[in-house]
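@channel sequence for tomorrow's demo:
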Amino acid sequence: MPHLQTFSRLHVAGPNDATTLRELETSLRGEAGASNRDWPLGAANRDSHIVLAMECQIAVGAAEVIHPARSPIATLVWLGVAHSARRRGIGRLLIESGIEHARGEGAAVLRLRAMAVSGPALNLLVASEFVERTYDETHVVFEKSLWDERAARHARTIQPHLYGSISTHGSSAAALMVAMATIDSRFMMTPQVERVIAAEIHQYTDADGQKLLAIASAAAHRSFNVAIHCALPPVLPPHRAIGEGTISASPTIPTPEELFGLLSQRQVPLVQAHFDRLRLSENDWLVVIGFDGLRFHVFDPWRPDQGNQAVTIGEMRRSLAEKRAVCLTIGRS
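structure tokens (generated this afternoon):
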């Protein structure tokens, strides 16, 4: 195996290795990823993980992975191997180290920008099962799924608190209640609570027409953190939420890999999208409650019988890729 041909030893870089990392970067002249890295800052950053490959006290390679806390995505921002040490498996060893770190931190995807990849590095990524994905004309990346059966089983342990009633205002209030009670079992689920939440969502929607912001505000008022994902996210006014909850917005829709990462971190996604097999209107919401390694298990507030409520990875990917797809993620710090 190529990665067994090296006798390099790896160690996690610290601030004292900044000069060594800078010299290695200079020798590679920008061909290893983002150039002009602030290595002292990176080594001190809690979200950054830098690994150095050493042979006889000489640095022959390095990799840096950045994983923000509670994010489903880790990013490989720098990967370099000295010219004199190539073709001995050092690059593969560094990538495997980065994969294990990202997986251990709870990430579901390891990603890097396609523009930072040169010819030899591209071959290495393909050998490590990275795939090229195009999310739009300017967003082309290589990414690798970090799913494994153990983590999938862990994500599936999220059990929803089912709710058998639903108001005439639509499924948003009931779906939000299920998501919040799934995260916090102390959350009350009664018809009266649903009527209050439905009226709150209706009131905010009437005020500014922002249905997504209205749903997010209802959760933030109850100290939950909400992320809004849609092609045209609403403009967040200052000081909208009360209580301890937060609201953020993003123009990108999570991929199935990212949904799995969110579930593994006990963040519950609400999805509004078209699924051919499920009889849903365009205004209905589904609560994604788990992933078993093959299918996403979903909860439909309109159906008291939740049997066979699951969609495949392919179905989820196609539905989320549509322009009208919307996703809210509900979590707690």
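heads up for whoever presents: The domain at 151-331 is CATH 3.90.70.10 (Cathepsin B; Chain A).
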